[in-house]
Structures are given as structure tokens and as C-alpha cells.
Amino acid sequence: MDQVWYDGTIARTTGDIGIELAMTVTALLYIPLRHLANSGVVTCTSMACRQLSSRRS
Fold this sequence. Notes:
Helix content is 67%, strand content 0%. By secondary structure, the protein is mostly helical. The model has no long low-confidence stretch (mean pLDDT 79).
């Protein structure tokens, strides 16, 4: 395969940071969002959520 790939300015200086960025964002958002979901502020209406809530009761 003879293809020329575009290298952006960040990739030229640091390399691929996609995995590191995804892990950082996940680590920062998971705990607060999980706390909101467990406190009842955020509710879920999907079938999977209803099944989980009926098992907890």
C-alpha cells in the first residue's frame, strides 16, 4: 500500500497520544458521573437500566 499519511503538528512533536488522552479523560469523568448516577440525579430509561434497578430492589 503506497499511501501518504498526514502528520499533524502535535503528532510531529509528541507522537500518537490518543490512548493517553482517552485514559485521562475517562479517569477524570468516570468517578463524578458514576456518583451522579448512583445518587439518583441522573436516571436511565433503557431496558438494561430497568433490569438492573429491579434486581437491586
